[in-house]
Amino acid sequence: MVCGKHASLSSVSDLDLRERLSAAVSTERAASTDVVFHLAELDRRKLYLEDACSSLFAYCVERLGYSEDGANKRVRVARLAQRFPQILDELASGEVHLTGLFLLSRHLTGTTSSSSWPKRVGSRSVSSKSSSPAGLRSRMCRPP
């Protein structure tokens, strides 16, 4: 049973439903970006240790209640954001998505610089078989 604000959408017009959904997606993107931003700083400060967690991953699972998969994605993207802060704006705008950044993070090395972040091109589909960061990045982004 759904209560309160989420009780029913059956009386909402089609146009209003689409507008509400777009607003909800924007809110979700902003919230997801904010979580990644905060996790990056919490990781930088190693504050999870003060909560008796051995890692940021453990903190996400044990203290924040994420699934192991959800925690793994957020931790990896938070660490990527520490190296490439511009991804936060791209994540918030919807240019890239959490899963795409998660997949891309496996292809970036410690020698990849923030100035070498690939330009936005391509489509939103992601192939985990891509071997180059630029190739994967081009497939995880919205068309220009």
Layout of strands and helices, then pairs:
Layout: H1 14-45, H2 56-62, H3 68-83, H4 86-93, H5 98-105, H6 133-140
Give a written overview of the molecule.
The chain has helices at 14-45, 56-62, 68-83, 86-93, 98-105, 133-140. α1 (14-45) packs antiparallel against α4 (86-93). The chain is globular, with a radius of gyration of 17 Å. The protein has six helices and no strands. The protein has 144 residues and is mainly alpha-helical.
Q: Ends: how far apart?
A: 41 Å
Q: What Rg is obtained from the alpha carbons, in whole angstroms?
A: 17 Å
Percent helix, as a range, is 40-55%
> How many separate helices?
6
- Total strands: the figure is 0
Q: Give the overall shape, derived from the CA principal axes.
A: globular
Task: Detail the poorly predicted runs.
Answer: 119-133, 136-144
